Amino acid sequence: EDSTTSTYYNEYADLFNGSLNSEKEQLILQEQERIINAQNIEYSIEEKLRKNKYNSRDEYISEYRSIREITERSSAFDRYFEKYNYVKEQPDKRCIISSNFDGLCRDFPDVAFLIFIIFVTSNLFLTEENSNMVTLIKSYGAGRKTFCDKIFSLCIVIFSTTFIICGIEFLVMAFRCDLAELKYPIQSLTYFNNCPFDISIFQGFIIVSILRLFGALFISSLVVLLSVITHKALPVLFIPSSICLVQQFIFKTATASYYLPTGLLRASGYLRGDAYETINQGSMNEETSKVFSEIPVLCLILIIVFVISFAVATFLTALKYYSGRKKDA
User: Fold this and answer.
1) What does the pLDDT look like over 13-41, one tens digit per residue?
2) Residue 197 in contact with residue 99, Cβ under 8 Å?
3) What is the reported pTM?
4) What are phi and psi of 185, to 5 degrees?
5) Secondary structure in 3-state letters for the chain
6) Are 268 and 104 in contact (CB under 8 A)?
7) Hey, how many other C-beta atoms are within 10 angstroms of the C-beta on 7?
């Protein structure tokens, strides 16, 4: 996008952003008519030039300059007119916004964060196993304290990392987007056009961040459980990574993956509602297909309950392992 289009786009943002009312709608339609008229004049100018009907070059330049500033707006206005058409379908639930909030609409796990969680957790719980220090720790009765210290450290790492990532994402939004738009309904974003909840974009951001935290809790719990059961680095690293990444490709639709605990790593789909895609197959021929189905709230609650139960079960299993004393042969 060139600087001219960006400038006009920002001008339209100042004029049209926010709730759609009759006055704003009239302004949009008037601007559409002004641009269409200018484009028609531009076409007639090109025809006159092609047929050599201008007496001089200055006459052509003068006539062209009179409509150039208006026609240059067409690209930026077309983007806003598309937003207007979207909002007018449900003006009570949608607002015109200039930003896309791509991070909130992300429908795939944060791979870097996922790798970080798996690496930190496995390193924390496999260090003594590889050096056989765990036997010495357990024999001196220090296993319970050691395990609790590890869990405390892991929680600090997960929470602080999640907080930092959320902070970075918010700063990116603050830099790229108009923060005033955060108070608009989340349905203002086309990705969440059928969201069943009456929440703002900012509330959606908080909910998605919390759900992704639960996803991190599930993965770290799985790594801890595998560490105390297998004591081997290969399955501890391979199994969680496979579970998270393979489900991204094995399901034909994204909906199915949200019925698994790993769906919490994506999270945005739980707020999405039903989603449809219209494909233009030629003149006057469009086909609409369903690309995503609403995830029931009860299902999300059950997944969260399962993750918490799994984390507690993992904690107790690992605690029992670290609390056990090795008897001399």
Assistant:
1) 889 999 999 999 999 999 999 999 998 88
2) no
3) 0.84
4) -60, 145
5) CCHHHHHHHHHHHHHHCECCCHHHHHHHHHHHHHHHHHHHHHHHHHHHHHCCCCCCHHHHHHHHHHHHHHHCCHHHHHHHHHHHHHHCCCCCCCCECCCCCCCCCCCCCCHHHHHHHHHHHHHHHHHHHHHCHHHHHHHCCCHHHHHHHHHHHHHHHHHHHHHHHHHHHHHHHHHHCCHHHHHCEHHHCHHHCCCCCCCEHHHHHHHHHHHHHHHHHHHHHHHHHHHHHHCCHHHHHHHHHHHHHHHHHHCCCHHHHCCCHHHHHCCHHHHCCCEEEEEECCCCCEEEEEEECCCCHHHHHHHHHHHHHHHHHHHHHHHHHHHCCCCCC
6) yes
7) 13
Q: Using one digit for the tens of pLDDT, what is the confidence trace for 130-169?
A: 666 666 566 666 677 888 888 999 999 999 999 999 999 8
Per-residue confidence (pLDDT) for residue 108, from 0 to 100: 82
Report how far residue 120's alpha carbon sits from residue 223's, in angstroms, rounded to the nearest whole number.
10
Please, what is the angle between helix 297-323 and helix 201-230, to 10°?
30
